Amino acid sequence: MVGVLGNVEVAVSAVRTATGERLSSVVLTPMPGGVDRRLLERVRPRRVEPLDAPPAGSGLAPVPGDAGLPFLGHTLSYIRFGSAFTRARWAALGPVSWCGFAGEHVVIAAGPDATRAVLTNPDKAYSQDGWRFLVDEFFHRGLMLLDGDDHRVHRRVMQEAFTAERVRGYVDRTVPVLRETIPGWPRGRQVRLYPELKRLTLDVATRVFMDGRSGPEAEEVNRAFMDCVQAASAIVRRDLPGTRYRAGLRGRALLERYFTEALPAKRAGEGDDLFSALCRARTPEGEAFTDDDVVNHMIFLMMAAHDTSTITSAAAAYYLAAHPEWQERARAESLALGDGPTDAAALQSLHTLDLVIKESLRLAAPVPVVMRRTVKDAALLGHHVPAGRLVMVAGAVNHHDPAIWTDPDVFDPERFAAHRREDRGHRDAWIPFGGGVHKCLGMLFGSLEVTAILHELLRHHRVTVAPGYRPRWDNTSLPVPADGLPLRLEPLR
Ligand code: HEM
């Protein structure tokens, strides 16, 4: 789930500082709240323009919007404001709008009816090329990048590696990794929790997905993998010396070599890691993966599983720190489970953590937009979207729709409890895992992994946050805390 930025090489010369800093570090400079509010107001177009003229007699309306700055469009506002940007466009222009973005004119589908129309894709007008054009070099033939029958067959095979029984096995492998690491996190001083969580989830992925061990080889694979992730949202997208793009291409080549060499042993063995499961996955009709398929899927899965779980755990840890009453309530349930082995069923019994995680996914969706491209003319809520348009499906906007949620900006996990179930206000009210045929295949494992991380955290540490602190998210790729999320861990009293 990477990179919304893509081919904006032009942006480099326009914005890069003389020191060669990352574009985002400039765009994300903290400013007083009033300045941010005024900047956000400016995403409302001064002059609304129609995007494409609808065919005569179609009865369709053109998509309203504006291009923004030359070349850059509204890219910088998106990096700074993330889903607050897409919400502001939705408020100003409605559920179907357009903006200049990453060198293209991009249609934004926001709000529950628009996202549903694109994600359910009844006329097969929307393709995954919206992702392919951004990340194909690094995540070639990953499940999310496939379309049509190709996708259907691969998803059926991959599902065999994500059955409830398999996921229970992955959880059993995950918990010991967490228990080795989390109790030892530093206490009594500020810790940047995001990098700690990132290391942790990468370690989980190495052990659970590949049955790998720590050591120099694991380090090299992790580095290659991180290079691919960073390259997918690189601004300079040419194979030039010293660029993140080149490092990503090298990383991809290393990962292909690594998984290809490890594959024969995995095929022959009886392992219960994800890599082994993909080698053996077979549908009742006998469909299975080739060696190349397994390699491509492993590289994509490492990416799909890793940043998303890290962001969710980080956001939930922040909300627990900012709302000590919820932290205490969740901790009481975690401590009541005792020190015995924590399996999937035990994690699923942690009712309060379940509510907190759902609310964190609502307020800080790790994948706030998913990308599509029209392969034929589409009618989207009465608007004409011609073939070839990039479409940004802004699901996180739905999470703030005041027609569905009471006080949408307030942290209120109880809204997901049985007596309220605000998420049932619309089928697309709450869609952090996407929807339609590409809905997240790792939803169960991802939710259990995040629950297990927070459970261990609460059993060993009290989490606090400096008064008045608010996380700032860098939206260059998936939203990550720009400052690493400084929190304090204290011993339990
Ligand atoms: C909290 C964690 C996670 C979140 C919020 C999340 C979110 C998403 C979203 C929004 C999509 C849809 C993309 C689209 O429609 O284009 C997706 C797809 C996918 N995710 Fe996740 N994900 C998470 C964790 C995981 C994990 C742990 C795995 C694997 C172990 C995983 C595997 C996948 C796969 C394979 C797809 C592609 C499905 C397809 O195209 O058929 N995800 N995820």
TrEMBL record:
Keyword Oxidoreductase listed? The answer is yes
State whether keyword Signal applies.
no
Which residues of this UniProt protein bind heme?
C440
The record's section on Pfam families has:
p450 (PF00067)
Which cofactors does the annotated protein need, by name? heme
Give the Gene Ontology MF terms in alphabetical order: heme binding; iron ion binding; monooxygenase activity; oxidoreductase activity, acting on paired donors, with incorporation or reduction of molecular oxygen
A single GO BP: sterol metabolic process
Q: Which UniProt keywords apply?
A: Heme, Iron, Metal-binding, Monooxygenase, Oxidoreductase
Q: Which family does it belong to?
A: Belongs to the cytochrome P450 family.
The record's PANTHER family line, in alphabetical order, gives: CYTOCHROME P450 26, LANOSTEROL 14-ALPHA DEMETHYLASE
This chain's protein is named Cytochrome P450
